[in-house]
Structures are given as structure tokens and as C-alpha cells.
């Protein structure tokens, strides 16, 4: 004979229900924040600490993601390109054709060792001398509009680039322009192959447009600049055609992006780390401020301990962090300050409304 047993549903104890209500209430209620900070003790103190750390992560997440999504090529190939694509197209064409239109093959590659490889005789054939560079000039003024340099000196890449930017001959360190109206600033676009880095600089002829970046060879191993020119030749494309310019731009856009990847990742983590430290410091600082605000002799809240006010700051940080993260993906340019603003407003509201001595 079977018996039907009724299963009794376990009811949540009043104490557990109160804790759940208080825990979730800390998201919007400052009174719940104070209650949880004062009444919850022991191992549960791990929770506000974890929430504070999670808040820092959420607050800086939009900044990290936006910086990781940056494409280095936008710095060089964003409109207007100021003739940078045309300069690169002529440079590519010069690797397989000399000035007279005769065919040749000057092999320029990036090796597995993290340096560019360009035989001395090929470099001299391209530039016209051991201590010279490749130049594209304006059709009418004959002024340089695009140049390609190779660091074969004893100088570091950064010293070599510094001479370029000061309009000096990077091989002799002498001023390139000695005329009466000489300019101390380099006025043309250029591509520079350094010993361990590669630099892209875009500048309009008027000098009003300037952009560029410096990348590394570590992600460019196996890149063959001459092979591109040979493929374009095989497709019967003229270096003045739109298709030629497009394919050259696409190739170099990828080179720029890949070369900048290592620096981008390093910069993104460094930048994010700085703001994460600031946000964490802000949380701790507000905990200290709450403690100091309640120290008056006649202040009824002076019973709050330093650790309790710290926990208040920790509990209160999570909701502003979630809010700043949501808005930060929308207003990326302001993402790094949204948490500071939202959290500051909540802590100010808490101090004015929930921790006023007059309300007791």
C-alpha cells in the first residue's frame, strides 16, 4: 500500500531573506550599504572587497576595449591621405623598375630576426648612394613630397627619426635646407625603416596635416615588399591607376596595423592600469573620508570603525561601476571619468542624506 508523501517546501529563513534583501539593496540604497557594512562580519567581508575589485574592472572595461580596437592604419590612411598612398605606389614601382623604365628586382623584406633586409647594392640602386634616400618630388615645384629612409647609421632609431623630424640629413646630421627661409621642421611625408622599428609619417605639403606612428617588426616577419610590386606587375596594373593605389594602400594598412599591435597592447594595458589604480584609490579614499567625517565628538556616527567605513565605500562602488560601464561603451571618449563622476555623486549623496548627524 503506497503512501503519498507531501514534500514540504523549505522556506527561506527570515535571517537569510533579510540578508538577501540587504545585499541586493546595496545597489541602490545607501541605508542598505551602511547596514551591511556594520552588521555583516567575518568571512562575508570578502564580498565587499570582491565587489570593489569587480567595480574597478567594470569601470575600466570600456577604456580597455576601445583601446584594443584601435587600428594603427587609421593614423596614416585616414582621409585625407595627403598623397601618402601615391608616394608608396611610386616606391613599390621603383623596386622593380628603374628611372628609365628598365626592369629590375630590389628585394626588400622583413626577416624572422626582427630587422629589415635590403642588400647594400639594392639600396644604393634605389637611392642613388650609400648615404642617400628615395625621394618622390612634386611634378612642378620639384619639392620632396614623399621619402623613404633606411637607418644604416650607428644611431638608434629614435635619434635617427629625430634628425628626420628636424629636417636634417640623418647620415651627416647637417641641415638639409640652408636657404634664408629654411624651415626647421620636416615638411614631407616619409617611411623610415629603422633597425628594429618602422616609422610612418604623413604630412601635407602645407605642413598643416600631420599624423603617423612608429611600429615594430616583431609581427611583420616574412613581409615582402618587393613581392607586392611583382604581383601588381603580373596583373598589368600601372602605379598611377586607382586599383594599384588601392592594393598598395591595403597592403601597407595591414603593415601599419601589425607593426603597431605590440605597442597598442602595451599602451592599452598601461593606460587602463593607470585608471584602474586611480579608481581603486578613489574607493579607498572615500572610505577614509567617511571615517574622518564621523569623528566629531558629538557625532552619533563616531561609533563607526575605520573598517566599517571602508566597507561602505566598497559596497557603494558596484552600482556606479555597472552604470559607468554601460554608458562608457556609448560615450567612449568619456569612459575614463564616468565612474569617478557616478561614484562621487553616490558617496556625496550618502554623506549628505544617510550620515547627517542632524537626522539622529
Quickly give the structural class. Answer: alpha+beta
By DSSP (H or I, 4+ residues per run), the number of helices equals 11
How many E strands? 7
Mean pLDDT: 87
Q: Which residue ranges are poorly predicted, with pLDDT under 50 across at least 5 consecutive positions? A: none
- The amount of beta strand, in percent, is 5-15%
Radius of gyration using CA atoms only: 32 Å
Question: What gap, in angstroms, lies between the N and C termini?
Answer: 66 Å
Largest sheet: 5 strands, mixed
Characterization of the model:
With 360 residues, the chain is an alpha+beta fold. Helices cover 51% and strands 10% of the residues. The protein starts with 13 loop residues before the first helix and ends in a 6-residue tail after the last helix.
Key traits:
11 helices; alpha+beta; 7 strands; five-stranded mixed β-sheet; two-stranded antiparallel ribbon; 360 residues
Which helices and strands, and how do they pair?
Layout: H1 14-25, H2 30-39, H3 46-68, H4 73-77, H5 84-94, E1 108-110, E2 116-118, H6 120-127, E3 134-137, E4 144-150, H7 157-165, E5 189-193, E6 197-203, E7 210-216, H8 225-234, H9 242-293, H10 306-328, H11 335-354
Parallel strand pairs: 4-5
Antiparallel strand pairs: 1-2, 3-4, 5-6, 6-7
Helix pairs in contact: 1-2, 2-10, 3-9, 3-10, 3-11, 5-9, 9-10, 9-11, 10-11
In short:
By secondary structure, the protein is α+β, with helices and mostly antiparallel strands.
Amino acid at each position: 500500500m503506497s503512501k503519498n508523501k507531501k514534500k514540504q517546501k523549505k522556506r527561506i529563513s527570515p535571517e537569510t531573506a533579510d540578508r538577501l534583501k540587504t545585499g541586493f539593496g546595496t545597489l541602490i540604497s545607501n541605508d542598505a550599504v551602511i547596514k551591511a557594512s556594520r552588521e555583516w562580519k567575518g568571512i562575508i567581508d570578502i564580498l565587499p572587497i570582491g565587489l570593489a575589485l569587480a567595480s574597478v574592472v567594470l569601470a575600466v572595461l570600456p577604456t580597455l576595449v576601445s583601446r584594443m580596437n584601435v587600428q594603427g592604419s587609421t593614423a596614416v590612411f585616414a582621409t585625407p591621405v595627403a598623397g601618402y598612398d601615391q608616394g608608396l605606389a611610386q616606391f613599390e614601382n621603383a623596386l622593380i623598375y628603374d628611372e628609365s623604365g628598365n626592369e629590375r628586382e630590389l628585394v626588400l623584406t622583413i626577416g624572422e630576426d626582427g630587422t629589415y633586409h635590403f642588400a647594400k647594392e639594392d639600396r644604393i640602386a634605389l637611392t642613388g648612394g650609400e648615404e642617400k634616400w628615395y625621394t618622390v618630388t612634386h611634378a612642378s615645384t620639384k619639392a620632396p613630397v614623399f621619402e623613404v629612409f633606411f637607418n644604416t647609421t650607428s644611431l638608434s632609431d629614435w635619434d635617427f627619426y629625430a634628425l628626420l623630424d628636424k629636417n636634417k640629413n640623418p647620415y651627416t646630421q647637417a641641415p638639409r635646407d640652408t636657404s634664408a627661409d629654411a624651415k626647421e621642421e620636416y615638411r614631407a611625408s616619409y617611411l623610415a625603416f629603422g633597425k628594429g622599428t618602422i616609422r610612418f609619417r604623413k604630412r601635407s605639403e602645407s605642413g598643416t596635416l600631420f599624423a603617423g606612428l612608429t611600429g615594430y617588426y616583431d609581427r611583420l616577419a616574412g613581409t615582402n615588399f618587393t613581392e607586392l610590386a611583382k604581383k601588381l606587375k603580373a596583373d598589368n596594373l600601372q602605379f598611377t591607376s586607382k586599383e594599384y593605389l588601392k592594393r598598395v594602400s591595403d597592403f601597407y594598412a595591414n603593415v601599419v596595423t601589425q607593426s603597431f599591435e605590440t605597442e597598442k597592447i602595451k599602451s592599452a594595458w598601461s593606460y587602463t592600469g593607470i585608471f584602474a589604480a586611480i579608481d581603486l584609490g578613489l574607493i579607498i579614499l572615500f572610505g577614509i573620508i567617511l571615517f574622518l567625517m564621523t569623528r566629531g565628538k558629538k557625532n552619533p556616527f563616531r561609533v563607526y570603525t575605520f573598517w566599517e567605513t571602508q566597507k561602505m565605500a566598497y559596497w557603494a562602488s558596484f552600482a556606479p561601476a555597472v552604470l559607468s560601464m554601460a554608458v562608457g561603451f556609448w560615450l567612449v571618449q568619456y569612459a575614463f571619468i564616468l565612474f569617478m563622476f557616478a561614484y562621487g555623486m553616490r558617496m556625496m549623496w550618502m554623506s549628505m542624506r544617510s550620515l547627517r548627524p542632524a537626522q539622529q
